C-alpha cells in the first residue's frame, strides 16, 4: 500500500544517517562572499561545533571544498535571494547535508550555509532566512 511504501522510504533515509546525527544540530556554519570584481570565493566566517573543531583533517578538507561546491564560479543568482540543498555520501553511504541561501548585494554575492548530518530541510531553511534578516 501507499503507507507501507512511504514508511519503507522513510526508513531507508534514516538508515543512511550518521549514528551521531542527534548529538549536534549542525557540523559547521559558513558565511561566504564573492565580490563582483573577483571570481574568487572568500570565506568570511565559519563556526565549527566543538566536536569537530578539534578534528583538523575534517576542518581542512571542508575549508577547501566548501567554497568550490557552494559557490562555483558559474553560479549566478538571478533573484535577490535563492536557496539550495545538497546531500553527500561518505564511504559508508552515510548522508551529510548542505543547506545554503544566496543573496545578491551591491558588492557581489553572499552565501550563508549549514552542513549537517540531519535532514531537517524546513528547519534549516527557516533558520537561514532568519539569520539573513539579522546579518544582511
Question: What would your notes on this structure say?
Answer:
It comes from Macrostomum lignano. This is Peptidase_M16_M domain-containing protein. The protein is α+β, with helices and mostly antiparallel strands and 136 residues long. 35% of the residues lie in helices and 32% in strands. It has a 5-stranded antiparallel β-sheet with strand order 2-1-5-4-3, sandwiched between helices. A hairpin with a 5-residue loop joins strand 3 (81-89) and strand 4 (95-105).
Which shape, going by the Cα principal axes?
globular
Helix content class: 25-40%
* Largest sheet features: 5 strands, antiparallel
CATH class designation: Alpha Beta
Which superfamily, in CATH terms, is the homologous superfamily?
Answer: Longin module
- Average the pLDDT over all residues and give the rounded result: 75
Gyration radius from CA atoms, angstroms: 16 Å
Organism: Macrostomum lignano
Protein name: Peptidase_M16_M domain-containing protein
Amino acid at each position: 500500500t501507499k503507507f507501507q511504501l512511504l514508511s519503507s522510504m522513510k526508513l531507508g533515509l534514516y538508515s543512511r544517517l550518521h549514528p551521531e546525527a542527534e548529538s549536534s544540530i549542525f557540523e559547521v556554519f559558513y558565511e561566504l562572499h564573492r565580490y563582483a570584481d573577483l571570481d574568487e570565493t572568500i570565506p568570511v566566517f565559519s563556526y565549527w561545533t566543538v566536536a569537530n573543531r578539534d578534528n583538523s583533517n575534517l576542518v581542512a578538507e571542508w575549508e577547501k571544498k566548501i567554497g568550490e561546491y557552494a559557490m562555483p564560479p558559474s553560479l549566478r543568482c538571478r533573484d535577490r535571494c535563492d536557496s539550495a540543498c545538497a546531500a553527500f555520501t561518505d564511504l559508508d553511504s552515510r548522508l551529510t547535508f548542505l543547506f545554503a541561501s544566496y543573496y545578491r548585494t551591491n558588492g557581489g554575492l553572499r552565501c550563508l550555509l549549514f552542513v549537517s548530518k540531519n535532514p531537517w530541510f524546513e528547519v534549516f531553511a527557516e533558520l537561514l532566512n532568519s539569520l539573513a534578516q539579522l546579518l544582511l
